[in-house]
Amino acid sequence: MKQLRIGLLGLGTIGSGVAKMLLKEGKRLSKKIGVELVLARIAEINVKRAQELKIPASLVTANADEVLTAPDIDVVIELIGGIHPAREFILKALNSGKHIVTANKAVLAAHGKEIFTTARKVGKCVTFEASVGGGIPIIAALRDGFVANRIESIFGIVNGTTNYILTQMTSAGARYEDVLAEAQRLGYAERDPSSDVEGHDSTNKLAILAKVGFGVNVDATKIHREGIVDVQIEDINDARGMGYTLKLLAIGKRGKKLDLRVHPTLLPQKHPLAAINGVFNAICVTGDPVGETMLYGRGAGQQPTSSAVLADVVDIALGRAQVTFRSLDTFADDSPPARLLDIREITCRYFLRFTVIDRYGVLAKICGIMGKYRISIASIVQPERRNGNTVPMIMMTHQANEGAMRKALGEIDRLDVIKKKSRFLRVES
Amino acid sequence: MKQLRIGLLGLGTIGSGVAKMLLKEGKRLSKKIGVELVLARIAEINVKRAQELKIPASLVTANADEVLTAPDIDVVIELIGGIHPAREFILKALNSGKHIVTANKAVLAAHGKEIFTTARKVGKCVTFEASVGGGIPIIAALRDGFVANRIESIFGIVNGTTNYILTQMTSAGARYEDVLAEAQRLGYAERDPSSDVEGHDSTNKLAILAKVGFGVNVDATKIHREGIVDVQIEDINDARGMGYTLKLLAIGKRGKKLDLRVHPTLLPQKHPLAAINGVFNAICVTGDPVGETMLYGRGAGQQPTSSAVLADVVDIALGRAQVTFRSLDTFADDSPPARLLDIREITCRYFLRFTVIDRYGVLAKICGIMGKYRISIASIVQPERRNGNTVPMIMMTHQANEGAMRKALGEIDRLDVIKKKSRFLRVES
């Protein structure tokens, strides 16, 4: 039987899952695909980790080079995460003639072009199904299943930590800080949660999805990004009162320019994404001719991510990934840089909350300014919730330009009847 | 540039969509994949159809052999549907050295083994992404994306016509017969709707999903099948009152024996499948290690199905489908025949509606019989809905064995206080 010899970098959560799967299920999988999958070596700085995991010590080395440059290894699975030294390890492995399987969205978003160019130069391939959506086969769907389509939009929930926090805030009515602390205690959020809660993880994933789906090179740091750190429980409650659910969405829409953004978004409660709760991810893809689609599953964690990593390993073992990589130029050298819409150029519906003095004529003033900026109002609600002499006023607009909206809000916030910076949230449907 | 020369069988709804896509988008797609896709010939008995569709007459023949045995054709796309002559055409094309792309669930369910064995014998491949779930890449997901998984269950809504009818009954409170007539008028149901409404289409698709996901040969005619023709508006309304939605589900669960069945099923309103409305399809796959997943999209129709057909064509053009077919023995000659659970062996929760005389002591009699058969009751509701001297009584059970349930119902229906055959529906969660 043909062999594929595998080197693994990192025995963290994902790495140990992949190692265990290969050791436990490798034989069954090898038989199924007709290629023997051999876990040849694991590089992990913390060698004690292997003992704890009951992985044979003979497989483990603290010296990454024994994986990266070993002549008896065909493919390197990079699961150390982060940008450095992941970038250097990947390049070294490629230059030593190894294929790469990675779950590392950060390094792909930051150095994807360099990595893919190097891979093409040395005739090896890079696969990255596990980098977005955990076990959801979204990269394969965009690249292969929808290959005949012109992708019109890709948007969804791509970060399980923030979705867990927002779900808990919604169901328990709890404050952001309290839910975050609980999520950290349960291991759903990291001790430094900034990558998740500030939206960096989502913009990295969106950059990868846009590259595969829209065929453009995207600089993830140029994507408009708002995390969930400013989400208030009132946002969630007021939105619910109007039939909406708050989610952190990664949004990509094709147009003259590309509309890419990550921000808390209100969705109608009947929208399929509104029902995606907890650590689950779901990604909606609209294409011509396929129409609307959605893929849903566990977006992170040891088990689902192992499923995606091993699917990539099998794809390489069968020789298909190499064909795909050569033929379908993902991260192509010559793909055009994305022309991104500035956030002020986008158009959507807005949810607004004003904190106003409870006095006749306030609404007229606000509506006057909205009208001046050609923003049309769909509905207005005044919840019974007095705070001193101020009350909230909730408004939902029709489609409006964000630049105009910001100018209008700037002007409204200078009115003497407005007692707090007005809050706005974007609405998708 | 390498060429792939394509012959098309049938210019029906799907065939004309594929022809138009190849003629209109073929160049763009060829450039993307590096292989020129050439629509070489179309066989269609009704040659006028080509004229109506503005397809060059030079491409069209009424003689199928000019596609099936033509030396200048590499792949035959079979889109005539039905079992005969589709089976004979596919076998002839394979024996003439063509690869096959098909959307034909009926012929695969009935003659899949013969077709796949022939293909392996002649060294060609058969692809069938479009046979289940329209544009949803479910076959690829089961076969490739989840290749490392032990698939535990596959269940979902795989028939758009019946889902449209049930959705309309639910939202408009309309009767089955009226909604069916409307669906026929709108083209969502065929003039002879039996394949859809009696569940044959769903059992064929379930047989295909079970073959790919569980690796067993399934005789689709052995799958327990109940369509939607007996669904009453009271079923839907009473279920809604208890927080459930009625869907026609194709259910597959791995166990000592395989549990395969198609029947109207109650789902909790919060279940992701409960929100799948109209002609959409959605399939949930649970695997180890991936966990719960769901794929959603338009399950039928010209455009989505064309997307899946062309994905298969690309897979063959790149040479990947051939590798997949050789390596991952879908419909393998030696895959074991499925050992199916008899419907009396299954276990699930049940929704029951009794039509009883409104008299003290009735409930005690019913509960007594249920207890005798060890069926435990979760809740009882008596809606205010008198009909002469009878009233309905709604019951939800805990997990129970279907054989016991049927015996209990037989005994209950012989009570003199029961005035109509009792209704039962299975519940999944």
Question: How many DSSP H or I helices of chain A?
Answer: 15
Radius of gyration of chain A: 24 Å
Q: Major beta sheet of chain A, specifics?
A: 11 strands, mixed
Write down the overall geometry of chain A.
elongated
Overall SS class of chain A: alpha/beta
Kindly state the percentage of residues in helix of chain A: 25-40%
Characterization of this structure:
The structure is a homodimer of 429-residue chains. Chain A starts with a strand and ends with a strand. By secondary structure, the first copy, chain A, is an alpha/beta fold. Chain A is built from 15 helices and 17 strands. The first copy, chain A, is elongated and about 80 Å long. In chain A, the strands form 2 sheets. In chain A, strands 7, 8, 9, 10, 11, 12, 13, 14, 15, 16 and 17 form an 11-stranded mixed β-sheet that branches. In chain A, strands 3-2-1-4-5-6 form a 6-stranded parallel β-sheet, with helices on both faces. The model of chain A has no long low-confidence stretch (mean pLDDT 95). The first copy, chain A, folds into 3 domains: 2-127 and 303-327, NAD(P)-binding Rossmann-like Domain (Rossmann fold), CATH 3.40.50; 138-294, Dihydrodipicolinate Reductase, domain 2; 344-427, 2-Layer Sandwich (Alpha-Beta Plaits), CATH 3.30.70.260. Strand 12 (291-298) of chain A pairs antiparallel with strand 12 of chain B, so a sheet runs across the interface.
